[in-house]
């Protein structure tokens, strides 16, 4: 046997050793007490006798030698089993004493690699205390009645030499009342070897008197049994001879009395009141004397006595039990006891009984290390006890068999089996009282397993016994089981952890909080950081609880902190953890301490920084618009240099490197950081006091030491939480509160909710600001803080391109001094309007800062939608300001405006003198005209500069965004056809369709803008000429075909209106009239004022639209010349050839103004006209006057001819055919005249006319002719009454005249066919002559005009043009893309579809054409009628 | 009846652990599974001693507790599959079959390009499949 096995054997030998009973008088104790020792304690260190060499013979006379020997000394009063409670209390004290020297501090951050060794070290550290416990535990189990191991072998009676009558004292000592109860009960043999010792205290006097007494004793008790023991030869004052090391000799061996001691008692034992150390009177000589004394007793008395006893008993046993006869007898004799009830302890055996004798024999043999003999006797005994069903004794014997086998080091299996049997029988058969013995056997078994390296089995045994135990011991056993798992190969760390957790649980159940803490902490090392979150939560939670119970709240907080963010736990657990955590924080004195909390969880890596450098935002929506859009809007508005080069670049290179990744912000303005808080729990969290943690260094200190600052800041972030506390007084943060205004936010996070919170900080001075992290208060108790992840420059990538953090990720700011800041709000901005609606908005510019600002500019990306009005626009009510007023109309110079638009790109500069002082507010009108259906984001930028140029930014911008939904409302289409009768007249058809789903609209006014064109209503035929009064006009308008009976256009309905469009000539009109003409659409009674389209916002919108429409065409050579009428004279940038001037008149702008009414009734409309009427302004720009026909011609000549046919049968009438080329191409025109027969078949001339073309002037036919003539002449506004009169006057002679003609009613006489070249826009006249032969009404329409627009100049130019137009189209599309980025769709020709075919298309379709002549009636009257 | 199923990764970190009981005994099963990893380690470190052949992925009964039996299975990539059942007499073949199906399910889940190897399996499809395997096992008559 070696190693651990040897250790165990040693331990067994010490544990199971002969017991010596000690009886001492009070004066002996007094002498010993001088050394703070009891008599037994004094002797005890010397009871382990090494290096003795005692010859012993076995029962069978086999000699062997004992190399070492142990004895146990106990006072007679101690030889009894203590009451259970006392024992437990005693053991508890043992545990307490061991737990005192535990490391109470939780060790943080133990490296994983060292875990195993650390755990082993912890296990090793705990082993001695456990061994001590085991020893004490076994001691409490000693002196049981079922074993003889603890029966005293001898008794020592000690009497002091200072006692009176020493001899009689000896006798008195061995008195029944002093003896152990077991002897009285008869379980123990009272006949003991008696040894008489006279203890002499050398302090009391010389040895002489003692010697006298000794002599007396020897004569009384026999020579051999008497001894003298002299102690206290030294003195504490002069302890030169006494070795100091002796002090430990007693301490390690002293056994506390089993009675639980009060605290004072413990003190008395541990420390003598006089302060003397133990054994201070004991000298080396004394030690030697005691050693000799004990050795003498052992060798000369105890061993021989035991040997003798073994031999006698053996012979007895052999006589009664050996041999066949005895066995049979035994069997028979035992049978008689079968009726004995199955009691746990079996029958009472006295010391005289055979069984007890055998037990004593076996135990003695065991103690004398004659294990063979012991084993055989134990086995003999076990069968007896088994038969007697004395299970406790049986188990005890089995236990000893196991030990004997172990000591013999043979048959491992059997020894383990015996132990198992012992454990089982202790448990099952012998009742609760012996459960402890089972534990003892388990401990033995464990030790045996351990000795053989079977740690796993040992652990199993320990675990099993711990489950049987219901006391603190189970915790100890579990802990030991855990350590066993640690020692297995391979180490079973997880089981180790698990058993530690179980042990911890038991420890805390039995109130051993320190020990529980210790084991939980050990366990934590196993479970941490592996994702076993339920387990680690469990351990952390219990650790937190324990810390809390141990009043160690700071650690409790640390532990609970790790538990609270447990999303995987059930809601009840989550709530429990959280409330415990908060409770602990409340209790802890570090209430305000800031913790690195995980709750609520914060996305530290993705924060969005909102700051305003030169770019400011009017709303958060504006801030969220991508930067690219703003850049495109700002194009041309902000100085370009500032974009490319940071203003900091102008500084020295040194400063640049330091501040390169700093954002710029302005003192006194908020910096917002969007942080996402999310609640992982199912419990609502109350988060308050959320604010940023910032580090601010005021300007000046950083100027010269920027590098130092950055170092400081890194140091700052790496430092612990405590240092970041603003009140910590660290340099740099000293005056943070003065310099920074931190706004605190509070919110509640529902279960599983995430919330993005904008946290703000406002620096009040210039300097460097660094946002470090965020702090908050959870449930108004726990202060938490987290640092943001530093999104720094990534290390150089392979492509050598630095991955700069984006500006909104940077948390470092360079704070500039105060700058003016403009705050912009747009009042009355609707979210939804109808298309075409005109609204007046109010732009409020307020300077919130102290400094003044100037040079305000305005630019929007939807210039067609939003228009800056004149400052005077605000003075009047809307929509009155739009109406034709009395005030002087300030006609805008349209061409100049267009010039401005095209060059400045729709940038509106506020008047130069506009300086907005700090704190002041300015209102400015804006006009909104929703031109087109759809949803739009109106992005607007307002630019301004500080009045006084400081070191800061040169300019700033405000970005405003609005979303606008435009519903489609009225759709307006215009078609203009040339009048076939007059060159200057056109017929305008206005198609209005109400696209709106619900709303009805009142049509109010149609206007036409253009200095060449005026709009007139088509008069009804019944109007009296000459009545020029306005009322009549109104009535005429009402009755005319231009106006429908009701001006209300309900949803989904269409309406067509007809107007006459007059060319008023290219001459300029007076300024008062403007270049507009308006037709009021209301009923005649309506006195609704006209809306003036020639001024104010409507004009501006119109102009803008025209510019916009023109824009794509700017590049399309000829086509772009067909511009608005507005630029007739003033255009400088474009070509002004005569051809084009002529063609500018080809376009006209038509506007429909309508109102949307909330109610249907007239009254309501009138009453609410000021508030709720919404003016809708639909404009159709640049309608082509040119119809489908590029050429317009008019035959002009006399209508009535009087001719005397008698005189001259041929009546010649001259006509002039005026042909005007309305196209933009040169034309070749061929004019052909036909006679009747050669009328082209495809002609649209009616059959009647084809056949005859002449109407006789009969009275009967006259009405019919008159009617037809009326119908034909209506358009020419020729009075039909005259025609009718004429017809009536020439009613005779027609038939014969007709009959005479063979070739037709009339003949062309001067021209058969002619060809003319007509340049674009020009007109030519062709003279025609007709000869008639009879009076009548002639239709002079037998001519045909063919044209061809293909001339040679155009062929070459046209091909070139088509190429260039293609290129230019690409260009233009590019240019629009560049100018209008996403969010704005340039208005294409969608409206063109309604407004008629585009000029180019019409030109193409009518490139070749042939048209017959227009009907023209000539009345020929014979002047010689009255003669005939 | 299978009461708990676990997939444990190379670093002995739980990839997936799901109990199939009604009570709130997640913690208990976590402990059981965690402890059984020790046994797996033991079996893997000295396979000869414990009679596990080298090519066998099925590790057999890991350890019996009072109420449960714990079975283990080790993939080639050192992914551990652990099964806790209440059935006291189970045929190895059945258990082996179950494990094979679990393994297939895991392979499919791990093949998901969005699965990060070594991290928890969050795929609901995997959970669904596992629970169907568990249910089918409970339903199948044990001869």
TrEMBL record, chain A:
Ranges of residues in domain TPPC8 second Ig-like: 836-958
Stretches assigned to the TPPC8 first Ig-like domain: 628-830
Signal peptide positions (record): none
Residues covered by region (Disordered): 235-272, 1391-1410
Low complexity biased stretches: 1396-1405
InterPro entries: Ig_TPPC8_1st, Ig_TPPC8_2nd, TPR-like_helical_dom_sf, TRAPP_III_complex_Trs85
Pfam family membership, one: Ig_TPPC8_1st
Composition-biased stretches (Polar residues): 242-254
This protein's name: Trafficking protein particle complex subunit 8
Automatic annotation (TrEMBL), chain B:
Pfam families per record: Sedlin_N
Database matches in InterPro entries: Longin-like_dom_sf, Sedlin, TRAPPC2L
Superkingdom of origin: Eukaryota
PANTHER family the record matches: TRAFFICKING PROTEIN PARTICLE COMPLEX SUBUNIT 2
Family statement: Belongs to the TRAPP small subunits family. Sedlin subfamily.
The protein's name: Trafficking protein particle complex subunit 2-like protein
Species annotation: Riccia fluitans
